[in-house]
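Section 5: illustrative case.
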């Protein structure tokens, strides 16, 4: 049978490749996934990935810091905390026109989502007025919008949602057990409250964490367990590799084994089958092979553009070349990017065309 006449694996609706969405994974079960032989783990993650997503599509977001530095929080990883001297000055909230200009440039470069971040503990009402206008102006360009502004209460979340904000990012960062080593100025419960407020207001949730902060393997499993408990799962799960910024207390923390990072991506993919898992900060320090493995493990979103908030990200040209090398394409903005149970004829034909060189993997999967 030729590859083109078979339905591609990611349209397969058999229960083996479409396990139930669960929120009750035990720590032991998650640790057992981490302990699988690497090839078995990646194979399983890839199977789950193909059951829900086009495996060669990657969602592309661009970040902009709309208010940089002098943050009152003491997050030990963060170059923007006012507690550490990282050489960043205190900047005011960017003017709306500058934000719109950057969003237009991001769209022209190929981004589908524009994420705006502010170094706040939480937004003040008068700042929120400006921020809401930014949301409207960026959405009007035809981009999806995401903001990360610190803690938000129900009123603030509802104002953001009414302005049309699509996603709100608020990371859990690490396990509840390790959290106290990293941040003392807000609690884990504060973070969970913000996530609940965002969900209640009707926005999509973007929440993940940072690896490579000296945490134990159990902390990685525990972080993922916390994310998995959120019901529904966050639509977007950024997995950041710590960017070690001179002047922060984490500047000299020991490097994490990149293969352990890949394992965490694969486990996130298995636990949260329908979420976009973002290979987030730290790509500039990663070689192409590590990034390719992350995509194989189920990562299907990246930050695109030469800077993250204050630190570097791969140049746009480098990312374009990497996509070409790997045969990846940017995921279009479309609500129907997830492969849910019903496949239309058109979607299937489209899928088969994209998957024409997929015969090898398919044969292995049926092995
Ligand atoms: N101030 C807001 C807050 O923390 O809620 C939003 C901005 S904050 C910079 C957004 C996220 O960036 C943090 O939660 C953290 O996960 C990530 N981040 C910050 N510094 C980082 C670093 N050096 N390496 C990796 N991720 C980092
Ligand atoms: C996320 O999880 N990572 C992004 C975004 N969400 C806001 C931020 C990464 C910041 C890396 C350090 C910096 O550039 O300042
Ligand atoms: Fe402030 Fe956010 Fe950085 Fe923490 S991570 S210091 S809250 S900007």
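Designed sequence:
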């Amino acid at each position: 049978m030729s590859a083109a006449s078979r339905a591609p694996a990611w349209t397969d609706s058999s229960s083996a490749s479409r396990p139930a969405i669960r929120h009750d994974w035990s720590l032991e079960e998650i640790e057992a996934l981490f302990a699988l032989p690497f090839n078995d783990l990646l194979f399983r993650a890839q199977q789950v990935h193909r059951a829900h997503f086009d495996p060669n599509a990657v969602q592309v977001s661009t970040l902009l810091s709309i208010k940089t530095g002098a943050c009152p929080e003491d997050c030990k990883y963060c170059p923007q905390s006012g507690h550490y001297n990282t050489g960043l000055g205190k900047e005011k909230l960017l003017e709306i026109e500058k934000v719109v200009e950057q969003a237009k440039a991001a769209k022209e470069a190929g981004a589908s989502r524009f994420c705006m971040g502010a170094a706040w503990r939480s937004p003040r009402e008068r700042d929120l007025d400006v921020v809401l206008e930014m949301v409207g102006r960026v959405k009007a360009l035809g981009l999806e919008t995401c903001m990360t502004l610190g803690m938000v209460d129900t009123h603030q979340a509802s104002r953001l949602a009414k302005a049309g904000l699509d996603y709100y990012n608020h990371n859990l960062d690490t396990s509840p057990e390790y959290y106290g080593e990293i941040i003392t100025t807000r609690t884990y419960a504060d973070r969970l409250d913000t996530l609940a407020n965002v969900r209640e207001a009707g926005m999509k949730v973007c929440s993940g964490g940072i690896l490579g902060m000296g945490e134990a393997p159990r902390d990685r499993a525990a972080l993922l367990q916390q994310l998995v408990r959120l019901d529904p799962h966050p639509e977007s799960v950024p997995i950041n590799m710590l960017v070690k910024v001179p002047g922060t207390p984490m500047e000299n923390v020991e490097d994490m084994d990149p293969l352990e990072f890949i394992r965490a991506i694969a486990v996130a993919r298995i636990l949260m089958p329908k979420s976009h898992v973002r290979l987030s900060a730290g790509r500039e320090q990663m070689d192409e092979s590590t990034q390719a493995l992350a995509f194989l493990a189920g990562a299907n979103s990246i930050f695109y553009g030469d800077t993250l908030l204050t630190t570097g990200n791969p140049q746009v040209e480098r990312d374009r070349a990497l996509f070409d090398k790997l045969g990846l394409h940017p995921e279009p903005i479309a609500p129907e990017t997830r492969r849910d149970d019903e496949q239309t004829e058109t979607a299937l034909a489209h899928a088969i065309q994209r998957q024409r060189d997929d015969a090898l993997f398919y044969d292995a999967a049926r092995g």
